[in-house]
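Two proteins follow. First one:
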Amino acid sequence: MTAGAKNRGAHRDAATTMQIQVGIITISDRASAGDYDDLGGPALKQVAQKIGWHLLAEAIVPDEIARIQDTIRSFVNQGCALILTTGGTGIGPRDVTPEAIRAMMRVELPGFGEVMRAESMKITPNAILSRNLAAVVDRALVVALPGKPSGAVECLGFVQGAIPHGVALAQGTPTSC
């Protein structure tokens, strides 16, 4: 094995096993008002902890662009390298999560949304209506997931393998690619 191949393998191993500092934001008018219990955030928290990521911050905010952006900025400032959002990715008049993220992103990663929709189409034809996405905001990878807890967990599973490397790149970690 060449030295270059060893280095690439070592980086992949380090990225895969890195301790990711994660923030989870539930975006829902009704959950933020206390009209019903948030189920999406806790479902993502359970998966994140099972993966071995460190939960640094959690929030429930209404479907308002400014509140979503303020919370993302706050989480970045607290040290979150990965921010998972759940909710606001549909086509309802109050679904504004993609707009909030796109207005503050450095770069969008379209492959995340494409994979989440393509894999979800195998489960429900309504997945085509979802506007899931991922983007780099400051030095954090932000992944916008569906509001339905099972959909959020499934979509996270579809893209989980790319997250450690995406976080490393967003953080400015030197890579071999």
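Second one, unrelated to the first:
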Amino acid sequence: MAHRDDIQGLRAVAVLLVALDHAGVRFLRGGYVGVDVFFVFSGLLITGVLLAAARETGRVSLREFYVRRARRIVPAAALTLVATDIAASQLLDVVRARRRRPPRPPFAR
């Protein structure tokens, strides 16, 4: 299946709706619609990929399909996990350090 910029754009809009809903943007409520739209278009794209494989080879290999997905997704997921771990360890150190500091008396210089 050829790359579909139109569908990828709609998927991006769906993700943006979810992100804005989580950010608390009041006039764009309804991130659940974004989730539904994202999954519908993802299903359309996945079906197209599987049908194209069936047309080319006469069969569908779910193993090959998932191996291709893993090669595409695992590097980004691993980077996200490592970056989140580093950021969390740094941010939590600041929070823990503030909790350990004794409170200052009022009007102290």
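SUMMARY FIELD: The chain has a mean pLDDT of 85. The first helix runs from residue 5 to 23.
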